[in-house]
Amino acid sequence: MTRHRVSASVVDLLRSPDGPRDRQLLFGDTVRIEETKSGWTRVIADKDGYTGWLRSDQLTADAPATHWITAPATHAYQEADFKSRDLVSLSFGSKIQARTETDRFVETELGYIPKVHTAPMTAKPDDPVEVAQLFLGTPYLWGGNSRFGIDCSGLVQAALLACGLPCPGDSGEQERALGKTVIEGTPAQRGDLLFWKGHVAWVSGDNMLLHANASHMAVVFEPMDQAIHRIMDQGDGPVTAHKRL
Fold first, then answer.
1. pTM of the full predicted structure?
2. pLDDT over 90 (residue 32)
3. pLDDT of residue 155
4. Contact assessment for residue 158 and residue 92, using Cβ atoms and an 8 Å cutoff
5. Residues 210 and 142 reside in one and the same domain
6. CA–CA separation, 188 and 211 (whole Å)
7. Do 76 and 56 reside in the same domain of the chain?
8. 35: nearest Cα among 12, 59, 11
9. What is the pLDDT of residue 2?
10. What is d(CA 229, CA 245) in angstroms, rounded to the nearest whole number?
């Protein structure tokens, strides 16, 4: 299968051509093409194996990325000057190819990106919770994977992939694939994951969760006890798993 990369800032990965969104891909994400018809292409995402449809014009030939976006979001500017016109916004986790670099900017096909918002592809953080905190206040978006909108599993995946750790795209698969089950009654610690049916949250500290949720419609900190009771009261059931990475 031919490999291409995403050429738009954020792309919906659809269940069928022009159908509902299942997940999203970011600029520079690489995919393998399975099928193309009537301006639509069915792809498999390299980052997690997720399969879906996107518009064919949202893909371009693959080119090795040299840097990735480490700020929550950034802009590409027309010139190496932050007062020049901004051309496109990119989310955390987007992958870019540097043409030239200065002390302040990385020149790319999109324009000039502030160097302070980038890191070489080989540079990886080691604390996924700290990464997830970059998304605080991001609006909730079902199936979202970017700073412009994200859901619970998207938040977990963004943090783990940034740290170089593999992670599926959906919370059900994450519950099965990630970490080891913690014995019931063991106190939760920072970096643990709590799962419910259809939901996942980071443990960010003592009795505190960090998660994207539709009640707050944002990425928020929430006391663990409060979240457990709220989710139960709204009819979504108890915690189904406590996992430790």
1. 0.97
2. yes
3. 98
4. yes
5. yes
6. 15
7. no
8. 59
9. 76
10. 25
* DSSP assignment of 84-98: SPEEEEEETT-EE--
CA distance 132 to 123: 17
Residue 194, pLDDT > 90, answer: yes
Token representation of residue 205:
């500290």
Residues in the chain: 245
Q: How high is the pLDDT of residue 168? A: 98
Strand pairing partners for 113?
Answer: 106
Residue 52 bridge partners (DSSP): 43
Domain boundary pick from 25, 44, 61: 61
User: From the CB of residue 217, how many other CB atoms can be counted at a distance below 10 Å?
Assistant: 11
Residue with tokens 């009537």: 38
Are 41 and 115 within one domain? no
The dihedrals phi and psi of 204, each to the nearest 5 degrees, come to -105, -10
Residue range of the domain that includes 13 = 3-61
Using alpha carbons, select from 176, 224, 234, 230 the residue that is nearest to residue 201: 224
